[in-house]
Write a structure and sequence with these properties.
This protein is an alpha+beta fold. About 55% of the residues lie in helices and about 10% in strands.
């Protein structure tokens, strides 16, 4: 039977491993989905022995750095290794979950004369089916495939439940829970939500008295003896508090790495205030607190419930709750059911009432509790089916024949449940695999790295702190690319960079959606003059480039050039207006074949990727612009110019130009 247990465990984990590997992230992250928003940062940190954003997650970082270093020594790439650490933690968590699921059912119910082997098979199959379905839920699956902290936290959480719910005595169980629980809570505060459930599970061991202290106290010695009676409890609780607080020691990693000059250090953990900002996670305080209106509370309620329904479906939620509630009437399963109800209930309640964003660390305990509800419900269905068949069969058959008949009949409910598990697993795979793979293969990070390669040598590139910044930093620090580019975030001292260091300041065209021209002028304390610095790159100039104004009124092309690259053709234009235009115009750029047919275009709502309208130009100012077109073999010329749309919907080309395309093959 032990061999069968291991076989089922390995089969389930192997199926899950194949699913996870199909979505494992192997490139610098570019997705901005809420699951992925911090993944790029984690990819950088785990490769550089750095520190993460608040609350720092120092234990996760320390263990992850060691694993990533080992994986890279085996030839795993820097982009893949961080995600593999999550996969390792997650597989350990699921293996522990399987162990707990088996233990919860053992010793298997001895129904009538059903032989023990059949019951054992049921135990292992039910545990395997539950772990398989839980492992395919979206939040679990995502965090098995990306560099994030949550599979590490799930591993700790399941280990805590395994210790708390193990029926056989464990020497120092309460102390082990306090130590591991403290480590877990200091790793991620959400793990503290499991404390009430764990306390319930082991409360008997916390308050246990020795027999000689249970005798009534003499009247004169009442106070003294009462103290003696409660001293074991006080001592036990005090030791647990001390063990739990040991988890704080992991935070020494943050100032140590900061003072050692680590490449990637978030915030200022080397200072007293910076350290406490990290430890307390003050920057996340905006998410914590009860919604101030009923509408806000309802919105948060719907937000959390929609995630849960996506994870386990509405039927899965209902079946899980039914299983946990029914188990309350079974003395052998009551502790498990109550423990899971408390754990999931506290996490759910806190998430709905006090946390106004989605936090996977609070979703996972809820879905974990529901998964054990599925297990308990399936077990109860099997028991009822076997009990009914036992009565019917034994009324008409001898004991020996009855055993054989029961063994065969007990297979039927397992087949039905197997079909349910297979259908459910198929649904979860179809729903989650394409979604997760789309996120982990999102090319935005790679595209941003390519974009940064067009930054002029020696220039400063500003990208907002986030996935795009992480990707370019990854390319610089870990791939050895972009050596001449200085990468900064929106918090840089731009006045110093431009005025003192005389550095060319460049950003991506998409930056202006969040950082408009007015923001740049506020940062620099002066007007700015935008120019194109390359394909989809904008230079933040602090003084205009002027040309001699011609007598011809309107807009002219001061100069133009064609730059042929392996995959694109760039049209570079210097626009000049003889006077400040009194109306704005859009830009058309059409790539034509030899017959004059348009084969590609790069139109913009205004020059410089739409961010430099004509009415912002100075008289005689040169506005440099770049338009990227695909390099096609049948390209012959480029027609471009400035136009406006009339009130009747037609287009008026006010300025038209044309240039030949000549690229060496």
């Amino acid at each position: 039977m032990a061999t069968l247990k291991r076989i089922i465990d390995l089969i389930v984990l192997a199926i899950l491993l194949v699913a996870y590997l199909s979505t494992l992230q192997t490139i610098p992250n570019g997705s901005e989905h809420y699951y992925m928003i911090d993944v790029g940062e984690t990819q950088n940190v785990l490769n550089q022995w750095g520190t993460l954003h608040a609350t720092g997650y120092p234990l996760y970082v320390m263990v992850g750095n060691i694993l990533v270093a080992g994986l890279r020594a085996l030839g795993i790439t820097a982009a893949t290794a961080p995600g593999l650490t999550s996969l390792i933690y997650g597989m350990i968590a699921l293996a522990l979950m399987y162990m707990l699921a088996v233990h919860v059912q053992e010793p298997a119910p001895q129904l009538a004369n059903i032989n023990e082997g059949t019951s054992k098979i049921q135990v292992y199959v039910l545990a395997g089916g539950m772990v398989l379905l839980y492992g395919l839920t979206r939040t679990v699956w995502v965090h098995e495939s990306i560099a994030e902290v949550y599979s590490f936290g799930l591993m700790i959480l399941v280990a805590l439940f395994l210790i708390a719910l193990w029926r056989e005595p464990i020497r120092g169980r309460v102390y082990w829970l306090a130590l591991l629980g403290g480590i877990g809570a200091f790793h991620h505060r959400a793990i503290a939500m499991a404390a009430p459930a764990l306390i319930y599970a082991v409360c008997g061991e916390i308050i246990a008295f020795t027999p000689n202290l249970r005798r009534p106290s003499a009247a004169g010695q009442a106070g003294k003896n009462r103290f003696k009676e409660y001293w074991p409890v006080v001592r036990r609780v005090a030791i647990c508090l001390v063990l739990g607080l040991l988890g704080f020691l992991q935070y020494l990693y943050l100032p140590l790495r900061a003072n050692a000059g680590a490449k990637w250090v978030y915030g200022e953990p080397g200072t007293w205030n910076g350290f406490w900002d990290q430890f307390l996670g003050r920057e996340a305080s905006r998410f914590i607190g009860t919604p101030t209106t009923n509408a806000g509370l309802i919105a948060n309620f719907n937000l959390v419930n929609n995630v849960l329904i996506t994870d386990v479906t509405l039927a899965g939620i209902l079946l899980g709750l039914i299983g946990l509630i029914i188990a309350l009437w079974n003395p052998a399963r009551r502790k498990v059911a109550v423990t899971m109800l408390i754990s999931g209930g506290v996490a759910y309640g806190f998430h709905v009432l006090y946390y106004t964003d989605i936090l996977s660390a609070l979703i996972l305990p809820v879905t974990l509790a529901l998964a054990f509800g599925w297990l308990l419900l399936a077990e109860r269905v099997i028991q009822l089916f076997n009990h009914t068949d036992t009565v019917k069969i034994q009324e008409n058959l001898t004991a020996e024949t009855s055993n054989r008949k029961l063994a065969r009949r007990s297979i039927a409910p397992m087949v039905v449940l197997g079909i349910v598990v297979a259908v459910s697993a198929g649904y979860l795979i179809a729903q989650n695999q394409p979604f997760i793979r789309e996120m982990t293969t999102n090319p935005t990070g790679l595209e941003t790295i390519e974009l940064a390669k067009g930054v002029p040598d020696g220039a400063v590139l500003m990208l907002d702190w986030g996935p795009r910044y992480y990707a370019v930093a990854f390319a610089q620090d870990l791939l050895g690319e972009l050596p001449t580019v200085t990468l900064v975030t929106h918090k840089a001292d731009f006045k110093r960079l431009v005025n003192t260091d005389r550095r060319e300041l460049v950003t991506a065209d998409f930056t202006f959606y969040n950082r408009p021209v007015s923001w740049w002028e506020e940062q620099l304390g002066r007007p700015v003059y935008l120019q194109s610095a390359g394909s989809h790159l904008v230079e933040i100039g602090i003084s205009p480039i002027m040309a001699t104004v011609q007598d011809k009124p309107g807009v002219v092309v001061n100069s133009e050039s064609i730059v042929c690259k392996p995959t694109m053709i760039e049209l570079q234009v210097n626009w000049v207006a003889t006077g400040t235009p009194d109306h704005d115009l859009s830009v058309y750029v059409h790539l034509l074949d030899k017959d004059g047919a348009m084969i590609a275009q790069a139109d913009e709502s205004a020059p410089v990727y739409g961010w430099r309208p004509l009415t912002s130009w100075l008289a005689g100012e040169v506005v440099h612009d770049v338009y990227a077109l695909p390099r096609l073999s049948n390209a012959d010329s480029i027609a471009y110019g400035l136009y406006r749309q009339l009130s009747d919907g037609s287009f008026d080309n006010e300025y038209t130009f044309n240039t030949a395309v000549k690229c060496d093959e």
